[in-house]
Amino acid sequence: MRISPNIGHLISIFLLVVAVPCPAADRFRIDPDHSFAMFEYDHWGLSYQRGRFDRTSGFIELDMEAKSGSIDIEIEAGSISTGVGIFDKLLRSGDFFDTDNHPKTIFSSKRLVFDAEKLARVEGELTIKGITRATTLEITNFNCRFMIVYGKYACGANGLAKISRSEFNMGRYAPFVSDAVTLLITVEAIKE
Q: N or C: which end of the chain has fewer CB within 10 A?
């Protein structure tokens, strides 16, 4: 059986299209010098107190064309810093982060939600003390650009989530110290 030249040409084009790989997501390594997590809570109705974690690492995969990607952020729980050494020690204890048994706090997501070209929110899971809860980060800032300092493309974002510390077995002193905590994550990541 002979294949007409037109059909043969169409088959060749089809095979060429099938063989061309789809563009993959870009992979970014989180820059630990420009990334950190903070938290804020109401202290006895007097003031909002804050603390931060000084060591953050992880990876982001981002496909801007498909408006998709994934995020894996690891926060070293023992790097907590409130500016008061005795309080930091208390927060590392079993009543709170239990850093001896749970050294990492992890946020992972495979669902990035865009509004046009801007990342609007990240729906994922937050794990603290081995307890995982669905958590959504509302993105307040998102930008990508070529960074001449690195000689590479980079992206950065700020996000926040409202969580209840009692859901992670850290409810000591509630309700005097609020159960509601605002988690703020600042991240910059450099394309590999």
A: N
